[in-house]
């Protein structure tokens, strides 16, 4: 209860899972996962990623949800309420990460807009002629258009957050996420049957462990946190709307599995095609946007499928972006008593402005010590702030708030969780050591 009124809650248990999965599944799975995998050398990275998701990611996700559900507040308020002191800084760091991630996320979200329409106006021809890369290059260097689309994306996000939890978020996830999933399956069939696809499958599935460097470890950790929406209080905020009788371990497991499945499937679409079309797997953030048009151009009704796919990708990006803005807004709403309207609109506008340098950096003209501005923002958020946030959250429940967390996770003992003891030890020792070690050995600009 806040302000004497009942705090909003998800309409149902399914509502939470859909919304949390909606937050998790997004550009991180379909845009970021394939291109990072491509840069980090393929299968060995993927295996590492899977281990990190299911050992550390799952544990931190339960920790976040339990803190949020107990406190029924935003990321900062939750830490203040359950413990206070310096722990509040962890919440702050999360809000900061939310600002940064959404600023560049909206730029890529804008790309999906462009590609929905471009599917019917030239994208397929470019793909068929092997010129999807030129098409993409031409598009991202037209900064005015990229910024206009970024603005459009932000307006959509603000509009949904402004309308509130139940109606705003749940409604959109229920039909469109399963559709995205099915479309990915169809695309896999097309991609793996292309001539020359085997090399892509080998890249994606035959690990070469000599490729595992400190940098690869950190990239896998950063990708795990980014993709699961962890380390910044997003799952604290969403957990705060979760009903008291839902099983946290069950809900968290479903979210982790769904999110990972979508990423892995996206890889099965992208890599066979990358190799079949002779593209470069390590080419960076354009990978998905260059590869897919070529795949679609090889399908009957390609324009239609392409339009549909980018529409669904747009929706997936939107549900993730909503959760990012929700973290930021919930802070201003709960702590500073702003209206939802004011919080969403003001923060949306600030984040939009913050994202303009990222949009502009795609021309190659805005670098910070050798990294493009967008890359740099992504690096700071995903490889520094999120892992650090996860580290502190794990330490917090592992050492400080352990008994409370146990109670919350087992619903006051009513729903025993068989892995509660390993979970405590992962939070206490395994996750902090692993994150700390990876962080310090892999941190390289
Ligand atoms: N998980 C989202 C994605 O994969 C991005 C995100 C990160 C959302 C952090 C919320 C918090 O696209």
Description:
With 445 residues, this protein is mainly α. It contains 19 helices and two strands. A two-stranded antiparallel ribbon has the order 1-2. Helix 5 crosses helix 16 (340-361) and helix 16 (340-361) packs across helix 17 (373-400). The longest helix has 33 residues, at 302-334. Residues 1-5 have low confidence and may be disordered. The protein binds phenylalanine (PHE). Phenylalanine (PHE) binds at residues 23-24, 26-29, 101, 226-227, 229, 232, 234, 320, 323-324.
Give a nutshell description of this structure:
By secondary structure, the chain is mainly alpha-helical. It is built from 19 helices and two strands. Strands 1-2 form a two-stranded antiparallel sheet.
The tally of strands reads 2
Helix share bin: over 70%
Rounded mean pLDDT is 92
Question: How many distinct helices?
Answer: 19
Topology record:
Elements: H1 13-24, H2 27-39, H3 43-71, H4 75-82, H5 88-118, H6 123-128, H7 132-140, H8 143-162, H9 165-192, H10 197-205, H11 214-228, H12 234-239, H13 248-276, H14 287-297, H15 302-334, H16 340-361, E1 367-368, E2 371-372, H17 373-400, H18 402-409, H19 420-442
Antiparallel strand pairs: 1-2
Helix pairs in contact: 1-9, 1-13, 1-15, 2-11, 2-13, 3-4, 3-11, 3-13, 3-17, 3-19, 4-5, 5-8, 5-15, 5-16, 5-17, 7-14, 8-15, 8-16, 9-13, 9-15, 10-13, 11-17, 11-19, 13-14, 14-15, 15-16, 16-17, 17-18, 17-19
């Amino acid at each position: 209860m806040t302000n004497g009124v009942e705090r909003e809650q998800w309409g149902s248990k399914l509502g939470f899972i859909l919304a949390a999965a909606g937050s998790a599944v997004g550009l991180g799975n379909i845009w970021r996962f394939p291109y990072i995998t491509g840069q980090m050398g393929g299968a060995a990275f993927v295996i590492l990623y899977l281990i990190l998701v299911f050992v550390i990611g799952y544990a931190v996700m339960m920790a976040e949800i339990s803190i949020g559900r107990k406190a029924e507040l935003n990321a900062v308020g939750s830490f203040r309420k359950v413990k206070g002191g310096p722990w509040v800084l962890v919440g702050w760091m999360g809000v900061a990460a939310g600002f940064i991630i959404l600023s560049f996320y909206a730029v890529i979200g804008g790309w999906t807009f462009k590609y929905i329409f471009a599917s019917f106006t030239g994208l397929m021809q470019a793909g068929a002629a092997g010129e999807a890369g030129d098409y993409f290059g031409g598009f991202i260097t037209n900064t005015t258009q990229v910024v206009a689309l970024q603005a459009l994306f932000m307006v959509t996000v603000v509009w949904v957050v402004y309308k509130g939890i139940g109606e705003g978020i749940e409604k959109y996830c229920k039909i469109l996420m399963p559709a995205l999933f099915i479309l990915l399956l169809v695309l896999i069939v097309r991609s793996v049957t292309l001539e020359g696809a085997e090399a892509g499958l080998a890249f994606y599935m035959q690990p070469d462990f000599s490729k595992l460097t400190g940098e690869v470890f950190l990239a896998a950790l950063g990708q795990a946190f980014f993709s699961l929406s962890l380390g910044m209080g997003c799952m604290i905020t969403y957990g705060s709307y979760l009903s008291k009788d839902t099983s946290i371990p069950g809900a968290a497991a479903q979210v982790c599995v769904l999110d990972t499945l979508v990423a892995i499937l996206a890889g099965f679409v992208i890599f066979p095609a990358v190799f079949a079309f002779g593209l470069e797997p390590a080419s960076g953030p354009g990978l998905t946007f260059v590869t897919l048009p070529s795949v679609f151009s090889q399908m009957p009704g390609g324009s239609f499928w392409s339009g549909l796919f980018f529409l669904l990708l747009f929706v997936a990006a939107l549900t993730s972006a909503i959760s990012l803005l929700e973290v930021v807004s919930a802070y201003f709403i709960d702590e500073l008593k702003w209206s939802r309207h004011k919080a969403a609109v003001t923060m949306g506008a600030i984040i939009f402005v913050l994202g303009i340098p990222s949009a502009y950096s795609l021309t190659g003209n805005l670098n910070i010590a050798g990294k493009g501005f967008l890359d740099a923002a992504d690096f700071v958020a995903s490889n520094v702030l999120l892992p650090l946030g996860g580290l502190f959250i794990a330490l917090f429940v592992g050492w400080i708030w352990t008994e409370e967390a146990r109670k919350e996770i087992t619903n006051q003992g009513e729903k025993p969780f068989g892995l509660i003891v390993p979970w405590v030890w992962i939070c206490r020792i395994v996750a902090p050591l692993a994150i700390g070690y990876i962080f310090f050995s892999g941190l390289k600009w």
